[in-house]
UniProtKB/TrEMBL annotation:
It holds the Pfam family DBI_PRT. Belongs to the CobT family. Keywords: Cobalamin biosynthesis, Glycosyltransferase, Transferase. The keyword Ribonucleoprotein does not apply. It comes from Treponema primitia (strain ATCC BAA-887 / DSM 12427 / ZAS-2). Pathway: Nucleoside biosynthesis; alpha-ribazole biosynthesis; alpha-ribazole from 5,6-dimethylbenzimidazole: step 1/2. It comes from the Bacteria. One of its GO terms (biological process) is cobalamin biosynthetic process. It is an enzyme of class 2 (transferase). Its EC number is 2.4.2.21. This is Nicotinate-nucleotide--dimethylbenzimidazole phosphoribosyltransferase. SUPFAM superfamilies: Nicotinate mononucleotide:5,6-dimethylbenzimidazole phosphoribosyltransferase (CobT) (SSF52733). Gene3D superfamilies: 1.10.1610.10, 3.40.50.10210. GO terms for molecular function: nicotinate-nucleotide-dimethylbenzimidazole phosphoribosyltransferase activity.
């Protein structure tokens, strides 16, 4: 790994530019080279996995929107009408829409899917249970969701993807995310936010439900146990995908607060996951930054976004790709017959 870093730094320093002048783009290139084990790295195929599932805690009235919105938004994405469709289409990402546990009947087999989208039927259950009243998942369901996530990591490799993004879709998923993180040791006041825009009274109610859920479930500070007692099918599947990328040479860009909570569960299971993770953006949700900080991840952009769906992740991932393109396409000093390549100027 150290050898790859040295080679990548030397490659960047030989390009026709002052040393270090591409700033963080150079850091992203170095990390990509370490992930892929090649100098320079490449980004030729990208896919954003958007995980949809329903959360039992929604029945406690912690969101402005009813649960049927989850299903409706899955159909909206598959028909090309969501924010992620616009942003992924504009930056060259394929969308892989994953049903991890949406409430209701299975989606019909003849479902119309727009070009640029793939639909993956991976549901573990018909929405998870209400963690305010009982464990969200059974141990068997947790293992199944983690395993299905690892199947999707292999799917990414089979598709020949160099970089993936992860997005989320599910009513009340910020409540599930906050509960998991509080159980993991984060301060509840730093984790509970307005989500879809609830008022002060509803925010206090949400805080109470989350606090009591964590207390009642009494989970050990263990990523798998927290996913089982307070998590959801989609969060466990996201964690499994992240864990399953180990050794596959595929970088992963995570989106906002819900995805980052799932990534943190993966981090608790295997702290090495930070080596192949990038934080696509800094969400406007207040709890996002402390969790990224704990994993040592620096967000690529800060656009005050809080949409989810992988929208912030594809923007951040596009910036990584631009850095990689610069590293691959810029001429070296010798190739361009430009003087100054031997000058040992100071980086700043």
């Amino acid at each position: 790994m150290e050898n790859i870093r040295i080679k990548m730094e030397a490659h960047l320093d030989d390009l026709t530019k002052p040393r270090g002048s591409l700033g963080k783009l150079e850091s992203y290139c170095i990390k990509m080279a370490e992930i892929q084990g090649k100098v320079p790295p490449r980004v030729e195929k990208k896919g954003v996995y958007v995980f949809a599932s329903d959360h039992g805690i929604a029945t406690e009235g912690v969101s402005l929107y009813p649960q049927e919105v989850t299903r409706q938004m899955v159909l909206n994405i598959l028909s090309g009408g969501a924010g992620i469709n616009a942003l992924a289409g504009g930056t060259g990402w394929e969308i892989i829409m994953v049903d991890a546990g949406v409430i209701g009947e299975e989606f019909p087999p003849d479902l119309e899917v727009k070009p640029g989208c793939t639909f993956v039927r991976a549901r573990v259950g018909n929405g998870c249970r209400n963690s305010f009243k009982e464990d969200a998942l059974t141990p068997e369901e947790t293992e199944k969701a983690l395993a299905q996530g690892k199947v999707l990591a292999q799917d990414a490799a089979d598709r020949g993807l160099n970089i993936i993004a992860i997005g989320d879709l599910g009513i009340s998923n910020t409540s599930t995310a906050a509960a998991m993180l509080v159980a993991a040791g984060f301060n509840i006041d730093d984790m509970v936010d307005r989500g879809t825009g609830i008022d002060k009274t509803m925010l206090e109610h949400k805080r109470h439900i989350i606090q009591e859920s964590v207390k009642l479930r009494n989970s050990p500070k263990n990523g798998k146990a927290i996913l089982q007692k307070l998590g959801s099918f989609d969060f466990a599947m996201m964690a499994g995908l992240i864990l399953g990328l180990e050794g596959k040479g595929i970088a992963c860009v995570i989106d906002g607060f819900p995805v980052t909570s799932a990534a943190y569960m993966a981090y608790m299971i295997n702290p090495k996951v930070s080596d192949w993770l990038f934080a696509g953006h800094l969400s406007k949700v207040v709890g996002h930054k402390p969790v990224l900080d704990r994993m040592g991840l620096d967000p690529i952009v800060n656009l005050d976004m809080r949409l989810g769906e992988g929208t912030g992740a594809v923007i951040g991932g596009h910036i990584i790709e631009l850095g990689v393109r610069a590293a691959r396409e810029m001429a070296s000093f010798s190739q361009a017959h430009v003087s100054g390549g031997e000058t040992k100027e100071e980086k700043y």
